[in-house]
Amino acid sequence: MKIAVNEQPQQFYLALKKWTPAVGHEIKVGQYRFSAIPVKNIIRVSEVTTGAKLYDIPVNFAIETLTATKGFNLFFLSNW
After folding, report:
1. Is residue 65 a contact partner of residue 28, using CB atoms and an 8 Å limit?
2. How many CB atoms lie within 10 A of CB 65?
3. Which of 2, 10, 19, 77 has the maximal Cβ count within 10 Å?
4. What does the buried/exposed string (b/e) look like for 11-30 if buried means 16 or more CB atoms within 10 Å of the residue's CB?
5. How far is CA 79 from CA 41, 61, 67, 75, 76, in A?
């Protein structure tokens, strides 16, 4: 199954207490679409059409260092 990460940041809406706009990257896995959005000390992965949270990736010092540049961030999201 092919995994593709959109290099351009996009606006998504998260399903919180109300629809909340946020900016992140789109991840396509086959026919499924997800968003990866940095929120405080996590990267929140959500389903695009519903805005429902799938899981949070905790960002420790190593991950923060790895994702400091756009190139490494896209590599990280493609290989998580």
Report:
1. no
2. 11
3. 77
4. ebebeeeeeeebebbbbeee
5. 19, 18, 12, 6, 5
* Distance linking the first and last C-alpha atoms of the chain: 14
pLDDT > 90: percent of the chain = 48
CA distances for 65 relative to 14, 25, 50, 60, angstroms: 26, 18, 31, 9
34 confidence band (pLDDT: 50, 70, 90): very high
Is the Cα torsion angle 77, 57, 72, 22 positive or negative in sign?
positive
DSSP helix/strand/coil, 78: helix
Confidence of residue 74 (pLDDT cuts 50, 70, 90): confident
